[in-house]
Amino acid sequence: MRLLPENLGQDEFELLARIAHRYYADGRTQEEIAREFALSRPKVQRLLERARWSGIVDIHIEAPPWLNLDLEAQLRETFGLTDVIVAPRREDPRSQREEVARSAARYLERRLHDGCVIAVSHGRDTAEVHRFFRPRHRFDCTFVSAMGGSPRLDEPTNPNDICRALAERAGGRAVGLYAPAYVESAEMRDRLLEQEAVAVPLRLAANADVALVGIGGTDDACTMVRSGCFSREEIARLRGAGAVGDVLGNYVDTLGRRIASLGSGRLIGLSIDDLRRIETVVSVVSEAEKPPAILGVLRSGVVDVLVVDEGNAQAVLDLARRPDETSPADGAIRETAGRR
Hints:
Helix 13 links the parallel strand 9 and strand 10. Strands 1-10-9-5-2-3-4 form a seven-stranded parallel beta sheet, sandwiched between helices. It has a three-stranded antiparallel beta sheet with strand order 6-7-8, with helices on one face. The protein is built from 14 helices and ten strands. Helix 1 crosses helix 3, helix 2 packs across helix 3 and helix 13 packs across helix 14. The chain has two domains: 44 residues, Arc Repressor Mutant, subunit A; 252 residues, Rossmann fold. The protein is α/β, with parallel strands linked by helices. The termini are far apart.
């Protein structure tokens, strides 16, 4: 004969077992169970919770072997994220980017609703998302560029092109930002921001429900160098100032503190403060050289949802557990990071 669970009398044991069986085995709703047992629905909910705590109900989840649920939980807890999706590890960079993009597409599909606005950044990882983006039906939604583009970037990686591709899949509309990512001077930037063609898309992006962004590095082959925004010498100077990565052209150090880059006053795009005000910022990243950049951007407090590959996920956690180097490099301008 089975012994009674600790702290349970026989009558309570029987009641919990009957209610748990109705709910988990018979598929009855809490409302139906409440009527049958003459209880309130909140009381049924509490009894179901007690059935789990006491061991009467032992739930086993048979997860697919490629899921990294523990790793996702560690990242959520470490960085205070709303959600984390870790894509399976793949051997070659192309396949890895596709796995991450597929996961990001599934998440974005779940976030869509009529009237929603999605701000979109540039980059190879965000550009890959539309290939796997298959909403269940058409949505009256808007995809808007969160920063200017560059004629030197491959067409699919410019934010305007990414917005058009996503909008076409969703049946929504795309709002482009027809301006360069960086202009020659802060004065020119200010004049451009007075123009309706630039100000309106940026204002729409700043008030978006969701932002889909990549994370850039500071290596010589990073997007900002390939796009012609910075030279190799300039990106080297940023590294010397402590920059490890960027989001929408906003550079941060390994502690997530903002660094005034060479182009800070010339950037046409959302700022870190703008991103912090958006309800859900989804970051998509897969390149193998990105762990320091991911760590810095996560610590900046702008990301809510991280979609990443297994290798980067583990590497970021390993970096986060190391002692921080808190002394700023000479000439770096930083601020203390924080969640919204």
